[in-house]
Design brief:
The protein has helices spanning 28-45, 49-55, 62-69, 86-99, 101-121, 124-135, 251-285, 297-325, 331-356, 367-379, 384-396, and strands at 141-144, 160-164, 171-182, 189-196, 199-206, 212-216, 228-238, 287-288, 291-292. The chain is α+β, with helices and mostly antiparallel strands. The protein folds into three domains: 22-135, Acyl-CoA dehydrogenase/oxidase, N-terminal domain (Butyryl-Coa Dehydrogenase, subunit A, domain 1); 141-248, Beta Barrel (Butyryl-CoA Dehydrogenase, subunit A, domain 2); 252-396, Butyryl-CoA Dehydrogenase, subunit A, domain 3 (Up-down Bundle), CATH 1.20.140.10. The strands form three sheets. The protein has a four-stranded antiparallel sheet, covered by helices on one side. A hairpin with a 6-residue loop joins β2 and β3. The longest helix is centred in the middle third of the chain and has 35 residues, at 251-285. The protein is globular. Residues 1-10 have low confidence and may be disordered.
Length: 402
């Protein structure tokens, strides 16, 4: 084709965010679910998120709405949980994080962490008591694992639960501190991980227990439309029914973390896509030197590079989702997905902001908000370094964590 045959009148692809037509990989039901979550995000999150973010407020009124939407404990079966597939949960995570990472984080903490812990490791009584109300968004849960001095190394946790009494009726006394615990100050139940004389165990701590103090962390530069807390346990007395009976050792919390990490693989691509779409729309409307920004080669290079990574990252998420639905997904594959997609999403959000110029530092546009949020996403559920070491051990056979 000669240069003369290449004109500026080439029509846009029907979906400039999906040149590969990856949506064709979805079933009709999956596409319908994705559209339903996207509509919710467009109607309830995007019009309000700048205000929530600026005011550093998590909109508690969304909890029952998200329950009605069917995204709380979405992948779990029974007890009022939706029982949807891994791919469907991933699509929901992607669409919600296109609105804001903080909202997707709430869904993840509620379902992938707190509800999964109860569903997988809890007694029948614990499941019946908590899961239906949590699935409906009537009760908020939190997952207390990270400590002020034990972030990436939970084996070093110092929170301790000691036996209180003897025999089958012996309870527990819980002492210690946790940090960066999402939703702790508004939670109706905390899933708390603590050392015991028998190893790490999980406990359910209902709201209002004497000796529990949850203090929101303020002056954050990221995740402002979300809640993270410092939590102190000072002689908290729990009955024998508080312990999650099937959880023993770090396998308990790590199983839940892998559920959350899987959702992040999809969610990060939602934030990246929304950043790209904001930059694309702006570049087509914004005139500089007499023509739209989108008409300049440097701008097109940025947009194309963003699109490449979004399409690759979304394709990776699809593949891992299908593996998960086939019960073939392995931890190192989750680490690969989380490491790649969050790292690339941050680059995309930053590049998108550069196209917006000075306007991009305001909350009128989403990319810099996404970039700031993604710094938290990059840190929680395993930092880049942790996932690199997981993959490094997998490919070399040598552990390098210590």
């Amino acid at each position: 084709m000669s240069d003369a045959e290449v004109t500026a009148e080439v029509p846009l692809t029907p979906d400039p965010s999906d040149v590969l037509a990856l949506s064709a990989l979805l079933s009709a039901d999956e596409r319908a679910l994705q559209q339903r979550i996207r509509d919710f995000t467009d109607q309830r999150i995007k019009p309000n998120i700048a205000r929530w973010y600026d005011d550093a407020v998590f909109p508690l009124e969304l909890a029952p709405e998200l329950g009605e939407l069917g995204v709380l404990g979405m992948h779990l079966e029974g007890y009022g949980c939706p029982g949807r597939s891994a791919v469907e949960y991933g699509l929901a995570a992607m669409e919600l994080e296109a609105g804001d990472s903080g909202i997707r984080t709430f869904v993840s903490v509620q379902g992938s962490l707190a509800m999964t812990a109860i569903h997988k490791w809890g007694s029948e009584d614990q499941k019946q008591e908590w899961l239906p109300r949590m699935a409906a968004g009537e009760v908020i849960g939190c997952f207390a694992l990270t400590e002020p001095t034990a972030g990436s190394d939970p084996s070093s946790m110092t929170t301790f639960a000691r036996r209180d009494g003897t025999g089958d009726n012996a309870g527990w006394v819980l002492d210690g501190a946790k940090r960066w615990i999402g939703l702790a100050s508004v939670a109706g139940v905390m899933v708390v991980w603590a050392q015991t004389d028998d190893g790490v165990r999980g406990f359910l701590v209902p709201a209002g227990m004497a000796g529990v103090t949850a203090t929101p962390i303020t002056q954050k530069l990221s995740m402002r439309a979300s809640i993270q807390c410092d939590v102190v346990f000072d002689g908290v007395r729990l009955g024998p029914e508080a312990m999650l009976p099937a959880a023993l050792g770090l396998r308990g919390p790590f199983t839940c973390l892998n559920e959350a990490r899987y959702g992040i693989i999809w969610g990060a691509m939602g934030a990246a896509r929304d950043s790209y779409e904001a930059a694309l729309a702006y570049s087509q409307d914004r005139l500089q030197f007499g023509k739209p920004l989108a008409g300049y080669q440097l701008t097109q290079e940025k947009l194309v590079n963003m699109l490449l990574e979004i399409q690759k990252g979304t394709m990776l998420a699809f593949y891992l989702g299908r593996l998960k639905d086939e019960k073939k997904l392995r931890p190192e594959q989750i680490s690969l997905g989380k490491l790649n997609n969050v790292r690339e999403a941050i680059k995309i959000a930053r590049e998108a902001r550069s196209i917006l110029g000075g306007n991009g530092i305001t909350l009128d546009y989403s990319p810099l908000r996404h970039a700031a949020n993604l710094e938290s996403v990059r840190t929680y559920e395993g930092t880049d370094e942790v996932h690199m070491l997981v993959l490094g051990q997998h490919i070399t056979g040598l552990g390098a964590f210590r």
